[in-house]
Amino acid sequence: MNKFSYNKPKLDIPKTSLQKIFDFLTIIIFLAGMIYIISVWDQLPDQVPAHYNAAGEVDRWGSKWELVLLPAIAVLMAIFLTFLEKHPEWHNYMNLNESNIEFQYRNSMIFLNVIKNQCVLLFVFLSFNISQVALGKAESLGILFLPIFLVIMFGTMAFFIIRSIKQK
């Protein structure tokens, strides 16, 4: 094993315009979602959906205060993933060498950016759906939620992994 694989250099790679736009839009949607939750808080019953099964049906009800956990988790996860996004030298790579290091770092940074924003948007969607079910405006997440979510998440991972492997 060569020294390069253990001693990955730190490169100054700025965020792309697309990453900045995705971050900005996600923040706006997150804030709009939180404003919505705050605006309907007094209308929410004491018990709201707290868990869904694989078919998207509510299988546990809990205190409406549990709804506060979703945005809190989203914020903590976004902070952590943003921190990791800024340190691509800490990430694991296949086929990393001097000729592709900048591409691999950028690919990894964009991957984390996309996953981070998808997760935050997921938590906003779940918060909104929970409030809609609790208010009687919806019945469930729907049977298509889980397959669509899995295709998006695993599709994103596959895209960036394949992109990384192709860049030898």
TrEMBL record:
<protein>
    <submittedName>
        <fullName>DUF1648 domain-containing protein</fullName>
    </submittedName>
</protein>
<keyword id="KW-0812">Transmembrane</keyword>
<keyword id="KW-0472">Membrane</keyword>
<feature type="domain" description="DUF1648">
    <location>
        <begin position="28"/>
        <end position="74"/>
    </location>
</feature>
<feature type="transmembrane region" description="Helical">
    <location>
        <begin position="141"/>
        <end position="162"/>
    </location>
</feature>
<dbReference type="InterPro" id="IPR012867">
    <property type="entry name" value="DUF1648"/>
</dbReference>
<feature type="transmembrane region" description="Helical">
    <location>
        <begin position="67"/>
        <end position="84"/>
    </location>
</feature>
<dbReference type="Pfam" id="PF07853">
    <property type="entry name" value="DUF1648"/>
</dbReference>
<keyword id="KW-1133">Transmembrane helix</keyword>
<feature type="transmembrane region" description="Helical">
    <location>
        <begin position="114"/>
        <end position="135"/>
    </location>
</feature>
<feature type="transmembrane region" description="Helical">
    <location>
        <begin position="21"/>
        <end position="41"/>
    </location>
</feature>
